[in-house]
Amino acid sequence: MRIRFIRARETWPLRHRVLRPHQELEDCDFPNDRNPDSFHLGAFEQDELVGIASFYAERNEQVKGWKQYRLRGMAVAPELQGRGIGRKLVLVALDHLEARHADSLWCNARTRAAEFYGTMGFTSVGEPFDIPGIGEHYVMSRQVLLPAPPAGG
Questions:
Q1: Alpha-carbon distance 77 to 5, whole Å?
Q2: CA gyration radius for the chain?
Q3: How much is the pTM?
């Protein structure tokens, strides 16, 4: 498995398959995808893209931190979930965010993903909320410079 930087458009097929299957592929073109401070990571097994995550310089008033980044659109091929791919994407991103002098990372975590984010050092901020057509979410955040969580969650 290798993690590398990818273009925003390369995330669309996996975003569509995992996160937005009932929408059009073009709906996977998220705001901020092409901002100069944004970056996208892809996880590859051989030459197949099996995991993605996007990161945006974006503030959330519920989150502490002066230089915040948002994690959005993280997805792993369903048949490979639970194998540490998402964890590796987040760890690579944290190293990159540290180099960018970011101090916090936040996301809108789907309810079913909240436990995963908890194992990565994220904590919930505020009350759960609903995104119409997608479901219940929690704002979750963590400091970029927290110690890495132990292997295996």
A1: 18
A2: 14
A3: 0.90
